[in-house]
Amino acid sequence: MQEFGAVLDLLALLASDLRMPVLLALLVVASVSDWRSYRIPNWLTFGGALFAVVYGTLAARTPVAGAMNAFGGLIVGFAAMLIFYAIGIMGAGDVKLMAMAGAFLGPQQTLMAVLFTFIAGGVAALAFAIHRRRLGPMLDNVRAAAQGMVMSTIAGVRPNESLRVSRSVGKLPYGICIGAGTTAQVLAHQLGYV
């Protein structure tokens, strides 16, 4: 019975707060675009982030708190994905998409959305590698990237081109993982699980 009440609360939130339906719609469009063309359009990420910042600022009790929450989430989403772009295992569109989602969610929820996204990405990468019979090379790439990141951190230097994957096992449209992970986090948060 408690779950039914949580579902009703979720439906009420979707009906009363425009941010969540807009975020979910943008994530669906980004996922479809990434699936079809391996690209997430800038109009979607920048337009979505602008909407989230403006709406969050105007809908908050105090505009400053709303703006800080939106910008904080944007920065957290951007920063969490930037290292993966820097070492060449994620595209710029993925970084911008997570930053956009962060602008809707705020900093705390964005951290959880990033975690859910990484879990969705890991499951998708394993399924993708198993389907293509490339699990061994994928695990070798993960090991090499992790070793390179640890060594760069210990030595106190920036990661360089040697961290790039040696043998690609194929492209994974990570926008789908961001969409799935963020949606799962939003639903889990609204249902009171996180």
From TrEMBL:
Presence of the UniProt keyword Transmembrane helix in the record: yes
Positions of the Prepilin type IV endopeptidase peptidase domain: 22-125
InterPro entries, sorted: Prepilin_IV_endopep_pep, Prepilin_peptidase/N-MTase
Assigned GO CC terms: plasma membrane
GO molecular function: aspartic-type endopeptidase activity
KW Membrane (keyword) present: yes
Taxonomy, superkingdom: Bacteria
TM helices/strands, residue ranges: 40-58, 70-91, 111-130
Coiled coil: none
Pfam families: Peptidase_A24
GO biological process: signal peptide processing
Record's keyword terms, sorted: Membrane, Transmembrane, Transmembrane helix
Family as reported in the entry's similarity comment: Belongs to the peptidase A24 family.
UniProt-recorded name of the protein: Peptidase A24
Organism, scientific name: Variovorax paradoxus
